[in-house]
Amino acid sequence: MTEFVRNQWYVAAYGTEIGRELFARTILGEPIVFHRTEAGEVVALADRCVHRRYPLSESRLEGDRIICGYHGFTYDTSGRCVSVPGQKRVPRTARVPAYRVVEQDSFVWVWIGEEDRAEATPVPRAPWLDDDGYTVVRGMEPLAARYDLLVDNLLDLSHETYLHGGYIGTPEVADTPITTEVDEAERVVYVSRHMDDAECPPFYARSTGIEGRITRWQDIEYRPPCLYQLHSRIAPVGVLPREDGTDPDAFHVEVVYAITPETENSTHDFWSVARDFALGDEEVSAFLRENNRTVVLQDVVALDLLEKVVEQEADGYQELSVNIDTGGLAARRMLRSMAEQGRADAERAPAAAGRVRS
Ligand SMILES: [Fe+2]
Q1: What's the whole-number mean pLDDT along residues 131-154?
Q2: The Cα angle at residue 271 between residues 268 and 273, in degrees rounded to 5
Q3: How far is the CA of 344 from the centre of ligand 1 (A)?
Q4: Which of 8, 74, 141, 193 gives 83 a disulfide partner, CB atoms 3.0 to 4.6 angstroms apart?
Q5: pLDDT digits (tens, 9 = 90+) for 197-255
Q6: What's the 47 CA to ligand 1 centre distance in angstroms?
Q7: What fold characterizes domain 127-340?
Q8: Which ranges constitute the DSSP H helices of 186-281?
Q9: Distance between CA 112 and CA 331 in Å, rounded?
């Protein structure tokens, strides 16, 4: 598998998932407990009491403090232990690591890696997920497969024709060649497929009300490791953006995935669908939510199956790649070089590793 890319921001949850209940989620193999303070700030701490390892997520939140459910060790929002049972003095080393957190674009992002590198790394943006000009449906499906299988899946949408026929797949998706561009400096992989005259799949026919054939543009923008966006444009055949760059006669759907490894063999598959039409229309929202979730679950079934195949295969198995795979292969190369970079950084500065917020 592609190893984990550390020293990056990852989507840990939707903001709506984190409240005044302790919430556990494992990110890149690190068990983390989340909660919201009384003032509404998201706090993320290592989910393991410093004393006897009891999960803090199975403990009690009192005010802004977590009281361990095993022996009552009490932690503040910085992870510092402020009280231990049976003695006045709290050992100086009694603290759990705190994670840096940013809430943005409906997501809770968490920094995984060396604390002092977070500041210099901007949190990726997906502005349509928190924009009055869009209506959003969303979900998260757990995947029992390594994250790179999901990267492969999303970078090559020709699978829509076969795996998602009757939902979002039509013959034109697989038949239309793609163009791939790689921006090494900004670390973005772009994959585009513009279909000028295509069948309108039910996903778009029912949500837009378009009857007949469409121009359908798929412009993928993948920012490894976590953020994947599919800019989808649908319009009646022949309708193009205007010369001034505006595009009022087309329907725009921003499909956003956050790909967050849970463990080496499991992944949090966050999906959101933002549209700039039928704003606030609950019937359209219900249809798109149900339809997209079905599509995501079709992928989950396929990728869970692939994970089992990959786990059982002999070392050195060589798969065959063709033109449709150029985006996926570029993404893999980028992930590999980012992982290597992270390892080299960690070796250069071992003292910085594992530092916590104070
Ligand atoms: Fe899919």
Answers
A1: 97
A2: 175
A3: 34
A4: 74
A5: 999 999 999 999 999 999 999 999 999 999 999 999 999 999 999 999 999 999 999 99
A6: 33
A7: Naphthalene 1,2-dioxygenase Alpha Subunit; Chain A, domain 1 (3.90.380)
A8: 202-208
A9: 20
Residues 275, 58: Cα–Cα separation, whole Å: 38
The three-point CA angle 325-1-342 to 5° equals: 100
Ligand 1 center–CA 141 separation, angstroms: 13
Domain at 8-117, CATH homologous superfamily: Rieske [2Fe-2S] iron-sulphur domain (2.102.10.10)
How far does the centroid of ligand 1 lie from the alpha carbon of residue 274, in Å? Answer: 17
Residue that the structure tokens 């967050």 belong to: 260
Place of tokens 């349509």: 128
> Which of these ranges, 78-87, 310-319, 338-347, has the smallest mean pLDDT?
338-347
DSSP single-letter state for residue 144: S
CA of 144 to the centre of ligand 1 (A): 15
Rounded CA separation 240/310 (Å): 43
The rounded Å distance from CA 158 to ligand 1 centre is: 9
Helix, strand or coil, per DSSP, at residue 174: helix
User: How remote is the CA of residue 270 from the centroid of ligand 1, in Å?
Assistant: 13
Compute, in angstroms, the gap from residue 88 CA to the centroid of ligand 1.
57
Check residue 355 and give its pLDDT.
47
The residue with tokens 């003292």 is 351
Question: In this structure, are strands 188-198 and 214-223 parallel, antiparallel, or unpaired?
Answer: antiparallel
Cα end-to-end span (Å), the chain = 35
Q: Which two tokens stand for residue 49?
A: 């009491």
Q: What are phi and psi of 316, to 5 degrees?
A: 85, 10
Eight-class DSSP state of 95: B
What is the Å distance from ligand 1's center to 303 Cα? Answer: 10
Domain ranges of the chain: 8-117, 127-340
**150 alpha carbon to ligand 1 midpoint, in Å?**
9
- Ligand 1 midpoint to CA 164 (Å): 7
Q: How far is the CA of 320 from the centre of ligand 1 (A)?
A: 20
3-state secondary structure of 345: helix
Beta-carbon neighbours within 5 Å of ion ligand 1:
299
Using alpha carbons, select from 150, 153, 139, 148 the residue that is nearest to residue 13.
139
